[in-house]
Structures are given as structure tokens and as C-alpha cells.
Amino acid sequence: MLKKLTQFYYPKTVEDACSQLANAKEKTSVLAGGTSEALRNDSTIEALVDLSKIKELSFIKSDSSSISIGAATPVQDIYKSDLSGVSGELLKTAAGKIGSTLLRNAITAGGNLVALFPWSDLPAAYMVLDAEVVCRKGKPKRTVPVINLINSKPASFLTKGEIVAEIKVPVFKKGTGASFAKMSKTSNDYSLITVASRITIAGGKIEEARLAVNAITAQPVRCEEAEKLLVGKKPDAELLAEAAKKAVAGLKVRKDYRATEEYRKEVCEVMIRRSLEESIAKAGK
Amino acid sequence: MKIKLTVNGKKYERDASESKNLLHFIREDLGLTGTKEGCGAGECGACTVIMDGKTVNSCLVLAVEADGATIQTVEGEAKNGKLSKLQTAFKANHAVQCGFCTAGMLMSSRALLNKNPKPTVDEIKHAIEGNFCRCTGYTQIIEAVQDASGQLKKRGGLKRA
Questions:
Q1: What residues form DSSP beta bridges with A31?
Q2: Inter-chain touch B126–A101, beta carbons under 8 Å
Q3: What is the pLDDT along chain B (161 residues), one digit of tens a residue?
Q4: I want to staple A254 with a disulfide (CB 3.0 to 4.6 A). Which of A177, A218, B3, B38 is the partner?
């Protein structure tokens, strides 16, 4: 319950929203899809700024070099979009794995990233796609790699009056494949383990590798040691098994009453290996 | 805070508490108790309503977020005391047992049929994926939606139950 909430603002433009946040005297929070905010038990929040009615924050655009998604775009729109290619397909798959139609109609592309829960599905996909985030503070904007926002926690990364306005994902060249997988008790349940990967192959060798996990960890992380191990090598079963082992060994596993650490680590290793296999198979097509 | 919204075609203007969710607002402030509260955490779908054409868990929407919205609840189904075709199909196919999930099931099905008058079984399953039923069984519910869209060849209904 938001017991102290007394003010609710519906800005119509990004500039209005940012100035409302920048000039707020009360303790103010941002709301987009509202799924986490409505359940939040915070008796200090006095005002909310609703971004869901800002039209310029809800769009999906793509051209030959990148895909841009407005931060307040419902993830159901991404799931049902006609985005294609490695990046488009991965975003659609990840968006489709989020909860149910009811939740996807509310949860947004930006909210799933900024609220950043361990079980958030999109951040791992954003990370392996080298996404960039456009943060706006009224008119001024800065474009930053999504990993910077995640690593320094969105709440402290964004300055007062600044919001995430857009997520930009590059389009990858031929020879690239990507995969997204989630394990949960039911398709509606919060993720227990989320794994995303992207591999580019050139001349029979791995040229670029990205691997990210979430849910088993407290926040989405890139498995950089495993990525380094893969680059420059010929992808064979032994290499992928070794990379998966290395990735899991480097994880700081969070507590989860639904399954033991040992079990989740074992499953995670298998999921990573299969994810890499899938990305490589797709890269070869 | 004063909010204006349209529910089942009727316009309302009410003073809504900022911390109240849409579900409680609909039930307590508007007196429309057809929409049910199950988990209250966006997991079960019992509180499903159609907001501006899209199904949402009304427990996860603050009432003030719905300012200016057009909402449909289960009370908007029957007209002049006569059940809608969809409701009749639920009844005829034994898609209602305890009835607690029914209001939500009807809203998810209604939103589907509004967009897609002849949905496939797969599309029906997708549309109701966020609605949990713990007693009737999903098969009869899926058959009811097929029936309402004129696609059910044979009614299994009671025999199956």
C-alpha cells in the first residue's frame, strides 16, 4: 500500500514529466505499467508521475541499422509486433515470456528495465543485444549502454528529473544468432533462471559472444569470463560445456525459497550450454 | 482526487483515494461487485477488466490511473436482464462451477472476441492464460468460447465434468 500517496500526475509530454519530477517537493516516484508500483509497500511515497499516457514514449521503430522502442511501450506490443531479424526475434521471444496477456498489457519495455527485479525478463535480452538506453531530462538527453544503467542500479543512475525514454538495439550482421530461455514453475510464475546469449561466427570461429543471466542472481549480469573463453575459438561441444561451467562458477546465486542453490546451478549450466548451442545453430543459418 | 471514467457505457465522476486500486474502487465505490478479488497480486486474473480495449488485472491498476478510461466489467455483458451470447455459452457448456474465476474469464474472452470473432483453440488459450481456474477445468471454458463464436461442433460440457 502506498499509504502516504496524495498526488498523482498525468503529464502529456516527456518535458512535462521531467519538470514535474525535477521540481517535486514531495517524495515522488515514477509509474509506467504500474504492476510493481500498485503492490509496492512504501509508506514514504507522496506523489506519482504516470508515464503511460505520454504518446511519444510508446512506439516501436526499426530500420536497417537499429530497433528503437519507446520506454512506455507495453511488452505485449513488442511480443505481437512484426519485428524481425536476430534482435527483433529475441526481443519478441523475451517479451512473450513475461507473465500473461494481462500482465504484458501493462508491463512496459522501460519499466521492466528500470524497476529491475531479479525476475525481470527483458534486461538479459537487452544486455546480450548491446542495447543502449536514451535517458531524457526534458529536452537534454544522453545515450548510455544498458549495462551501465543496470550495473549502477537504475534508481541511482538516473538523476533527479531524468527518465528512461527509449531503448535502442542494434541490428546484427549475418552470421549472428541469439537465444533466450527462462525456467519457472509455470509460464505465469516469476523466473527462477533466465539465460540469454548472442554469438557471431566468422570464418568458422566465434567472433563475438554475449552471455547474460538473471533470476538466479540478484540482478542481471553478463558472464564476461565465459564470453572471453569463447571468442576466437571454433565452437565445439567441449568448448560450450567449458564455457557454461565457467559462467555458472562465476555467479553469485541469490536465495530463492522455490529451489535450492545446487539445483539451480546445475540447471543453469545446462540452460547456458543449450542457449549457446541454439545461438550458434542460428548463426550458421 | 476527482476522476472521471466510463464503466459499461455509464459515466462516473468520483473522488478516488490515491492509494486505492481499480478493483477496490469498482467494487466499493461503484458498487459493481461482479469483478472478484483473488490473489490481489496480479497472478490469478479473477479481477480482469477491459480497460481501453485491453485486458488488465484491476488489482494492479490504481484507480487514479484509470482517469479518463473506458472500462468494461462483467456487469456490462448482460443487456436488460438477458445474458450475452458468451455468458449463455459458458452456461450451456458447463464452463462455470464455483464461478469465482468466471467474471475474469468472461472479460478475457470478450476482449479476444472483440478483436478476433473466430479465434482458434490456441488463440483462446493464449487469451485466458492469465486467468486461473481451480475447479471447472479449462476444457469447458475453451469450448464455451468456441461455442460463442459459432465454432463448436459438439457440446461435451456436462458429460466431461
A1: A50
A2: yes
A3: 999 999 999 999 999 999 999 999 999 999 999 999 999 999 999 999 999 999 999 999 999 999 999 999 999 999 999 999 999 999 999 999 999 999 999 999 999 999 999 999 999 999 999 999 999 899 999 999 999 999 998 876 666 65
A4: A218
B108 touches A at CB < 8 Å: yes
Q: Which of the four pLDDT bands, split at 50, 70 and 90, describes residue A97?
A: very high
Its domain, for residue A197, covers: 176-283
- E strands in A119-183: 132-136, 141-145, 163-170, 176-183
Same domain, A180 and A99: no
User: Which one, of A207, A220, A205, A282, lies nearest residue A251 by Cα?
Assistant: A220
Both A59 and A155 in one domain: the answer is yes
| Cα gap A194→A250, rounded to integer Å | 16
Residues 6-65 on B with a CB inside 8 Å of A are 18-19, 21, 41-43, 45, 48, 54-57, 59-62, 64-65
- Considering the four listed CATH numbers 2.40.110.10, 3.30.460.40, 1.10.150.120, 3.40.50.1220, the one that applies to the domain covering B85-160 is 1.10.150.120
Can you tell me the distance from the alpha carbon of A36 to that of A56, in angstroms, rounded to the nearest whole number? 22
Among B19, B45, B64, beta carbon nearest to A1: B19
Q: How far is B106 from chain A (nearest CA, A)?
A: 13
Ordered by start, the domain boundaries in chain B are 2-76, 85-160
